[in-house]
Amino acid sequence: AQKITQTQPGMFVQEKEAVTLDCTYDTSDQSYGLFWYKQPSSGEMIFLIYQGSYDEQNATEGRYSLNFQKARKSANLVISASQLGDSAMYFCAMRSNNAGNMLTFGGGTRLMVKP
Amino acid sequence: DAGVIQSPRHEVTEMGQEVTLRCKPISGHNSLFWYRQTMMRGLELLIYFNNNVPIDDSGMPEDRFSAKMPNASFSTLKIQPSEPRDSAVYFCASSFRLSGENTEAFFGQGTRLTVV
Hints:
Distance between the termini of chain A: 41 Å
Number of helices of chain B: 0
Helix content of chain B: under 10%
Largest sheet of chain B: 7 strands, mixed
Structural class of chain B: mainly beta
Oligomer: heterodimer
Number of strands of chain B: 11
Helix content of chain A: under 10%
Shape of chain A: globular
Structural class of chain A: mainly beta
Largest interface: A-B, 24 and 26 residues
Number of strands of chain A: 12
Shape of chain B: globular
Strand content of chain A: over 45%
Order of helices and strands of chain B: EEEEEEEEEEE
């Protein structure tokens, strides 16, 4: 079975500063994908960034980057230059072929950006 | 593409009534997920289809819940009879699954269900 853990229920960050949201995962599979989603107060789930388990480089998408440490089974999301619009819930998720390709989510972290 | 389309966006029903939630995945996607989101339990995977076939329904809470995918462009989640504890936001998501690839899923806007 695969499991995703997000240990930070809530975080504050000052506008324009960088913030790291933690995500650890547990799987026995060698091939898997890690994802981050953003859920603003309006409720929709927005895909942010993807990291494959065999990718040697950390994924980046604009102000989002993923700090992938495979040996530690962590996939932390880094948001640079935080903006007020970044205030939202953030979910880490994982898919693996051997787990039936299901998409499993962590409990989420609520990020609040202070002006 | 219009994205994943869910209907209705909001549903209020009385306990004991049948509720049917609908989902149209993105054209060309071959994987479909139904999730339930509550404050207490977060995002729970209810059922997962691949090529219209249910692969894992271990997350379906009980026999009152059923899901179907009669074709690649339509899926339903039915609750019968509904209970107040079923109140939640129900999301449908779809993705294109390649063998050996783990691709992202795209979510619909969700259906907010309230059972009174």
